[in-house]
Records
---
Amino acid sequence: MPEATALSAPMRDALRKQEHADLVVGIPSFRNAATIGHVARVAAEGLRTYFPGRRVAIVNADGGSQDGTSDRVRAEADGVPAIAGPYQGPSGKGSAFRAIFEAVRLLGADACAVVDSDLRSITPEWIERLIGPIVRGQAEYVTPLYARHKFDGTITNTIAYPLTRALYGARVRQPIGGEFGFGGALATVFLEQPVWETDVARFGIDIFMTTTALLRQVRIAQAFLGAKIHDPKDPGADLGPMFTQVVGTMLSLARRPEAVAMWRGATGSRDVPVIGDVVPVEPEAVGASVPILVEKFRAGADANRDSWRELLSPEVADTVSGAVASGDPHAINGELWARAVYDIVAAARTLADTAELARALLPLYFARVAALIDEVKDLDHAGAERVVESQALSFERAKGHLLERWSVGEPSRR
């Protein structure tokens, strides 16, 4: 068994003293003292309420906070053993998850749920819906399904969901949602992948986990968790690095031989089972600055004009050029966006630096989000969700564009 590398010595020692846990809740964190106590307290209540008699633990892997984040976890765990401390390795959410996976293995746990440290809407039932399907043998991997405000989750809505759905044929609505459940065996699978010096160690972790589960064809379920209320980020002001890391990871995974074999053969998409009754929820409002998005689109166009001519198909590049000239992001509609994304996926077949490819796509993401905000601004949650679904169908319809582009220059199989 390879020696753990993401666990700090104090955490490793604390885990060895704990000896064993059947079920674990993992919480990655960095400077979350204001919110993580509530998350730990609710997680502990969920473990006690829904899994009485099971040996349980909370593991907080922290990025070196100086605000007492880990102290809050230990103080609020309310009788549930809590192992909290810093992780080792590259700074980022993925490194924290790596430490949690290692903790699951050291504790010999059967199942684990991971939850964000800034949640305000978490309830004890979340823990049951994330871990329960694993314990009952209904699933090996559980993704969240929740209502998010129409301006929230823009990376999910514009690319993570529609591209994952079209490539791998499964309607996993929140592939990078933040809350997941998985078995101990799958945690070991995650650990053994040689990805921990890549963007998977940062914000690429969620899509890495979901895509790995899809490629291994494990049983997947979605847990309905109601509304997600957390500390949101403005897509124009805050999400550039996250986009690059998530999309760069998606591109790296999509070009693996086993992934290519799967998405080449996948047509359409299938439903993924849902745990819990889906009830209408109107999420808390989230703000988004369209002027910032448009300005970043224009600035990015100046930096990427040559790259776009090289990477994008002629008809896509021409439409993008027109949008830049007019300053109108609405030309980047769902159909055009799907083809642009597929152009970048195809480019990853021969270009090694997927982060560079993701950065080339980033200005078009800003334009697509600006257009999408305008499309949904007068709609309720259900109406906005229909727009997202329509865009996902655009990705399915345009998949032939990817197959054609991927084949250009591919060695003959004769």
Note: Residues 83 and 321 are 53 Å apart (CA to CA).
---
Amino acid sequence: MITVIGLGFVGLTTGLGFAKKGFKTYGIDINAERLGKLKNYEIPFHEPHLKEVLGETLGKSFFIDASLNEAIKNSEVVFLCVGTPASEDGSADISHLLTAIDQILSVDSDSYKVLVVKSTVPPSTLLQRVKPYVEKIIHGTNKQIGFASNPEFLREGYCWIDFIEPDRIVIGVNDEKSKAVLSTIYKPFGAPIHFVSYNSAEFIKYLSNTLLSTLISYSNEMSMIADKIGDIDIPNTFKILHEDKRWSGNPASMSSYVYPGCGYGGYCLPKDTEAMNAIARANGVDTAVLSGNLKINADIKDYLVDKLENELKKNDAIGILGLSFKPDSDDVRITPAKEIIEKLLRKGFTNISAYDPISNEVFRKEYPEMAIKYFDDLDSLIKHNNNVVILTGWKEFKENEQKIKKRNVYDFRYIYIS
């Protein structure tokens, strides 16, 4: 049996994935509103396929009504899928992770359990912080605890497909008993399983995310250079770059990262790049690329806002198209749109409105202080704004190119090819 602690994007997908494969799986979350929605077969965020799987498994192989005590006692594997946000200095805050561990270890159970850290944490976290922390607590007791690091490689908007049909499974483990348990639960997925050290597993996750964030910042730096040189068709040059056969792939292939825009956002890339940079500095490494990566991700927003300030008047009507950090997602955490709108407001722009196909209410709720107007459809925004700024590359915006281009368009996602 399996317990998943934390039912956000990663945790809920993980829990439903194992339940779909036939494992009895408990889902635990401290957010009562989230649990209430799940009990009513509602997914508390936008993610394709999860609603159907929840309907198939809830109360059959996926259980969210059990107490933490019951779940832990009955489980051999406990997945930790809680948030690890960035601290003020950029390092990963693992306090939620340690709190969850405290709650798990408070359960009176001596049966063998594998604690699996699926939350994204910098290399050395499990070995140097989590494992010693647990061993200190259980010293002198009969508790039997194994450890593993099992990073996720889930793309928002594709979470279910990525979990149920993984290209690879990475497990950091150093004891045979834990390895055998995890081999059993992952065998039904039919993907290559890579057993590595704890640090290697954590490092592989950061290799992935920091590469993706670096590719985005590289593209934005090149777009700024091209804009300054002039007479360069920026979106078309990148499209031609992508014709190299090494970039071909599915809709979320590497080419979607090597493309200029207004910066990377979401929950993973910003905090993971900062965390990797922080731990590198702590180990005496001068991170020219990562530091530059983070600087460019900040600079691109100032660059684009300055462009608007130089070309528009402060009372001009500006319509923002897109609030989520990427299309096919309602995630507005660390979204570039938030920073760009804030910067415009601070510079004195007074007539800003926005439309996103699914993220209006999420954005309004997350940033209630934002003094902007929201439109419920594309036509209304276009009607009321002479200037349109595209900040998310939604399919709806691509399909309505001619309609949108009747206005003065700032295509900061380069979704239109000349």
Note: The chain has a mean pLDDT of 95.
---
Amino acid sequence: MIDIVRDKPAKSLSSKQGETANDRPKRGSHDVAIIVYDGFTPFELGVACEVFGDARWVAPGDPWYRLFICGDTSAPVTADGGFQILVPHGLEKLSSVDTIIVSPTYRPSEVPESVFESLRSAHARGCRILSLCGGAFVLAEAGLLDGRRAATHWAECDALAQRYPLLSVDPGVLYVDEGDILTGAGSAASIDLCLHIVRQDFGSDVATQLARQLVVPPQRDGGQAQYIENPLPALDSSDLFADTVTWVQEHLGEPVTVEDLAVRAAMSPRTFARRFRAATGTTPYQWLVRQRVQHAQRLLEVSDLSIEGVAEQSGFCTAGNLRKHFSRIVHTSPQAYRHTFQDRNTA
């Protein structure tokens, strides 16, 4: 099941036995505006146009979205890749649409103030607003994420949290749905979020048909956490724990405990834990678990070991223990991770 965060549990949108017509989403035209500005990234714009702007696959006469590309200027805007596009609609269009999509940009500080004002006005009248990838920075700058949960690309989560401390960033999910405001994670998660919107508006059957057209799964297993790299902070040869860390990384499959690490470092467990946290920013136990999970990830990617074999070689001893820690950190199961990331040439 897809890994998202909601304020309230959503009603299933799939057609099930016993479901009445009133339970299903109403089919009707829906106006969607995409905001672009200098520095926008083109991938997410393409996703939004493909989902909300292409009605060729919809049956004749069947309502669908009407898409408007909007901006602060009638002059061309320059994408992050260097090419330019014409903007057919001004920001005044945002006062009448049902949904607004905020494009990501690597230069949020250069977004015109008029964009922020238009977003605040649209939100005040009840418009649904979603951001794709780094577009969360634009929503945060507009003040619309204060006190809310939000998602963005995993590599930008720390920066978003530090710059806007009033919001809560979830680095593990593909998107966060808070009803009137939705935020997507990394670039490809834009597809997941847009399909989620279609599922809300037109039902699961329609969203699944669209996913087939796009040649993507209707819902992905797990969340963004399975793509995150969490390397240990670099320790030079003079660091107090460098030798201990190197030794552990070479013996992850052995039954090593935090007490064993303290003995190797010639410290008491309490002193070792305090100094290790000061040097690495995490506790010895959590560091050891994450190292083992990362080792398990590599084994799942490049080996044909059974899940039990991966558990043994990564130091978790049993498949159940591996699944518990793996699911907590990576937000998916070892088997699902293998299915997604295993090198088919070595499988």
Note: The longest helix spans residues 284-302.
